[in-house]
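Field reference: sequence -> structure
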Amino acid sequence: MSLDLDKRQRAMLREMGIRLWQPQPAAAEVAGVVPPVDPHKISVSTPTSAALPAPEAAVVPSSASNTPPSRRPPVESAPASAAPSNAAHATASNSAWSLGEARVLYAKPAADNGQPAAPGATARWLLLIETPPGAAEADPLAGETGKLLDNMLRAAGVHQSASALCVPLSRHADAGNAAPLDSALAELLKAEKPDVILIMGRLAAQALLQSTEPLGKLRGRTHQLADVAAVVTYDAAYLLRSLPDKAKAWDDLCRAQHLAQQAGSSN
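Structure field:
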């Protein structure tokens, strides 16, 4: 049988165990002159082994795929339960976080001595700050990040509020030995009764809100944690590396301050 085969088709036939035979070059080729090859003289011969397929079974696949069938990896369809939903992913991330020890940031303001109270002075703030593993015991107002955080909070008037409590959030490798974040957060909110929550840090915000949305979408709106208004913003460590985002963080603080003033006026 004579076939006019191109290079790709010949390679495919070799992969299928079919050998190609081509006549030896004439004497003129030995002398350095290569005569043109007549494609009609190329014949296909198959081994005599009974294990090889018949020649007519070697059908060249369509041009939809350039990969021989014998070299294509098997396609395994995963069961529906193997692909986790966003909610399942968020729950898994949520279980890898734990709350640290609560710390009062500022002493309770002194008596006003007849002076009008600052807006939101009766509001209670709760700061949930993303903290690197092993740094949960550190003073949140220490170092360069602490100085930046202190400046931000004072500019928003948090130091003049009735209460400003900071709780670090740390991600840990051994989630099985930690108390569930949901129950720990519920107990904290029940005990402290904050008027506004400020969540600082992308990963912490995703874990607390059980969301997979990026920080850019979590910012700029008011969330609810156990019926308490919550605002998401960048953590101070990130702001030290990305100065242009300080303006966005200030917008977030203004939103939280507005919520604190609303809550303070209703108290």
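Note: The chain has two domains: 1-25+38-62, 96-110+118-266.
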